[in-house]
Amino acid sequence: MIKVGIIGSTGYAGGELVRLLMGHREAEIVWYGSKSYVDKKYADVYRNMFQIVDEVCMDDNMEALAEQADVIFTATPQGYCASLVNEEILSKARIVDLSADFRIRDVSVYEEWYKIEHKSPQFIGEAVYGLCEINREDVKKARLVANPGCYTTCSILTAYPLAKEGIIDMNTLIVDAKSGTSGAGRGAKLPNLYCEVNENIKAYGVAAHRHTPEIEEQLGYASGERVTISFTPHLVPMNRGILVTEYATLKKDVSQQDVKAIYDAYYGSEQFVRVLDDGVCPETKWVEGSNYTDIGFKIDPRTNRIIMMGALDNLVKGAAGQAIQNMNLMFGLEESEGLRLAPMFP
Fold it and tell me: Which domains does the chain have, with CATH numbers?
């Protein structure tokens, strides 16, 4: 049985980790870390865990946690994991970090976009970018995994096969993304109040969103060239879900069948990426509560562009589910363990 510790267990991603791990046959949570709720019963914070979780919340002492856990999930704000991790901790426990602290290879890029100093750049080189469908073999050997974010997971998976095969002009790539409000976290913020969000849709972080360099870096590895994208996220009044619509100019004369064959070659054997049938567009309601990413596309011959579309649940495949998928790979378990969840509807 894998002993699991969670730092940040009372945030939305941390709460989702708890929910999913309750159904994991090979894992046991030994530490419910929460700086805000120390000594408070976890089930008093999340009442859905009443008579399911009896433990109380503990502090965020990673050194003490490493003595008890085989793996530590850090579902914390940017900068927190980097400020705590050290060689002694990594010698005792593996870490899956759900923040952006180890996702970007160039520390100067990280500091520019996140506006904070990186506290442990010495570990960036060994951290594995935990997008399992792309870096599966590296994840298996890792002791530190940088769990990708929700926007980035959806944006990268949706374009990756065509970027890798040189089908699209990467300098024409535009990513239009929309997210439910849980993507902004559980902290009280004026822009996330009900009256601010309900009956409204708004763009934010325009030309400045901090997930931009992460998407560019990973698609740059895929295409073998420097990538610059236009990325615009939007907030929509729903709890969960990410929908990305990506536009790019075609570099090759390909048919709908040609492109479908490329996607099937990359994702046909993947458990958690579903390439939809011709003419079917991804919808967030068909992935909610699951670890699936649904992908569709349409060629527009009039403009010589392709429209690529992807949908996932930002708290599952975009956060906690992907983290557990990474953990399963790191410990040699079946990749789908604890994640065999059909999407919820309605």
Answer: 2-126 (3.40.50.720), 151-314 (3.30.360.10)
Q: Tell me what the mean pLDDT of segment 22-29 comes to.
A: 98
User: Residue 162 has which token pair?
Assistant: 């065509």
Catalytic residue (one of 81, 132, 150, 154): 150
Q: Which of 306, 206, 290, 288 is nearest to 249 (CA)?
A: 306
Could you tell me which of 191, 190, 194, 186 has the C-alpha nearest to residue 14? 186
Tell me the pLDDT band of 193, cut-offs 50, 70 and 90. Answer: confident
pTM: 0.96
Question: Does the annotation count 132 as an active-site position?
Answer: no
pLDDT band at 186 (very low <50, low <70, confident <90, very high): confident
Contact of 174 with 248, CB cutoff 8 Å: yes
User: 10 Å Cβ neighbour count for 207?
Assistant: 8
- Residue 273, beta-bridge partner list: 293
Check residue 183 and give its pLDDT: 87
Tokens of 238: 């729903």
Cα end-to-end distance, the chain, whole Å: 34
